[in-house]
Amino acid sequence: MLHGGYTSVRPFAEQYCVDPSPRVAAVTDHACPPDPLAHFPGSLSPSRTNDFLTCPLLFRFRSIDRLPETSSAAALRGTLVHTTLEHLFDLPSADRTVASAQSLLARAWTALVADDPESAQVLRDDLGLAADGDDVAAADRILASAAPLLETYFALEDPSRLEPHAREFAVSVEIADAFTIRGFVDRIDRTASGDIRIVDYKTGRAPGPRFEAKAMFQMRFYALAWWRMTGDMPRLLQLMYLGSSEVL
Fold it and tell me: Which of 10, 109, 124, 131 is most exposed by smallest CB count within 10 Å?
């Protein structure tokens, strides 16, 4: 069942795809298609689903009209940290140190520069670094801006004592009319007794009490997906906020 009691995607889409006001029409430059499902995506991530629940217009811009967006410096820094923590567990347990994580972070930055120079420049701009400046100095500044997030991670848990069951694990759930919600779980831990813990890293700050339920929406989806895929209900859902050193 979808949010609001819907059991089908069509009324869900019809509520989303109302006749736009002149202001909205001016922005999107086209009216709603006769069939609300004509351009409705066949699958959504938890974050895009949250867009719909929070602001249907934002959902339209991102998921239907697919207006181009430039990743923010904070989001790109978060991507570097996520990549670092994913590969940290490739190392032997004794080598999972802050120094090793910083080396992996440097490697992730080098890969970003090579694979996506435009995104790399967003991070340079955020720190006031020239595009044609000293590459070594730029790397040092960018890595220094992300290093505190890694240090916070090590303060929250000891990775040398963990052996994740899975990392960056793809999950999906078909809910109605062949419509799928899908996503990637940062980490899944399984205890010796078989209990499952789902962990997601956040590089921002933890939300206030009023917004905790919204923050946990993604985790509840992951729990549902894992249960539907394996038959096991996760015992613990854990959000690690590296920006404020808090765990929900």
Answer: 131
> In the chain, how long is the greatest CA-to-CA distance?
61
**Structural domain containing residue 110:** 73-161
> For position 185, which CATH number holds?
3.90.320.10
Residue after which a domain boundary falls, among 112, 131, 161: 161
Query: Which residues, other chains included, contact 69 with Cβ-Cβ below 8 Å and sequence gap of 6+?
Result: 62
Quick: pLDDT tens for 72-122. 888 899 999 999 999 999 999 999 999 999 999 999 998 998 899 888 888
Q: How many domains does the chain have?
A: 3
One domain, residues 12 and 44: yes
User: Could you tell me if 241 and 172 lie in one domain?
Assistant: yes
**pLDDT one-digit tens code per residue, 157-205:** 999 999 999 999 998 877 766 667 788 999 999 998 999 999 999 999 9
- Residue 190 belongs to what H/E stretch? strand 179-190
Q: How far apart are CA 112 and CA 118, in angstroms?
A: 9
Q: Which of 145, 161, 177 represents a domain boundary (last residue)?
A: 161
pTM (global) more than 0.85 = no
Q: Could you tell me if 137 and 215 lie in one domain? A: no
What distance in Å separates the CA atoms of residue 77 and residue 228, rounded to the nearest whole number?
33
CA–CA separation, 41 vs 37, rounded Å? 8
DSSP string, 48-65: HHHHHHH-HHHHIIIIIS
Backbone angles phi, psi at 182, to 5 degrees: -140, 160
